[in-house]
Specification:
This protein is an all-alpha fold and 183 residues long. The protein has a single domain, classed as Four Helix Bundle (Hemerythrin (Met), subunit A). The N and C termini lie far apart (62 Å).
């Protein structure tokens, strides 16, 4: 086996050398074929309440926890791999805050996928004029929290948490607390 590798190497090097010095153009590369995943539209798996409870609430709670305790001072759990406190687990500290902030921003994309339903079966109001503004508020809050976490700045995380609270309240006041509800 070893001889084969050495036998191929000089030939490969010679080909690369010739290709690099040749003035002839290589034939144009064919465009990659579309895969089924690349050509299909996003699929909805959960209702809005499940997305909120599974992604947004836990991520928000990490940001809120960082307001009260400097993530860099949270001691790691005895076994970080088994820790339930996101600030003390294997990806804890400020990294947990960064990850939570990214989850908030990325989950905004999930809130605009057509076909998602509210817990009560009504369609998520993605066509209402205020919905995109509320979703953008969530993205902005996630971005602000991410920048605060990268800076490891407690004052900025307080400000980001306030922005997040406002973004959440704007949507909840209209769609969660009023009848007909959507959650």
């Amino acid at each position: 086996m070893r001889k084969a590798r050495f036998a191929i190497f000089p030939l490969t090097a010679a080909c690369l050398l010739l290709a690099g010095t040749s003035s002839a153009q290589a034939p144009a590369a064919k465009a990659p074929a579309k895969t089924p995943a690349a050509s299909s539209s996003p699929k909805v798996y959960g209702n809005l309440a499940q997305v909120m409870r599974g992604i947004l609430f836990p991520a928000s709670n990490v940001i809120f926890a960082a307001q009260n305790e400097d993530p860099s001072k949270v001691p790691p759990a005895k076994d970080p791999a088994l820790a339930t406190d996101p600030l003390a687990n294997s990806y804890g500290g400020w990294q947990a805050v960064e990850n939570a902030a990214i989850a908030l921003s990325e989950s905004a994309n999930l809130l605009i996928i057509p076909g998602r339903k509210c817990l009560n079966g009504r369609p998520v109001p993605i066509n209402n004029p205020d919905w995109p503004k509320f979703v953008q508020g969530l993205r902005d809050a996630g971005d602000k929290a991410y920048k605060a976490a990268q800076a490891k700045d407690m004052d900025k995380i307080l400000d980001a948490a306030d922005t997040m609270t406002t973004a959440c309240s704007n949507c909840h006041d209209k769609y969660r607390e009023k009848t007909p509800r959507c959650q």
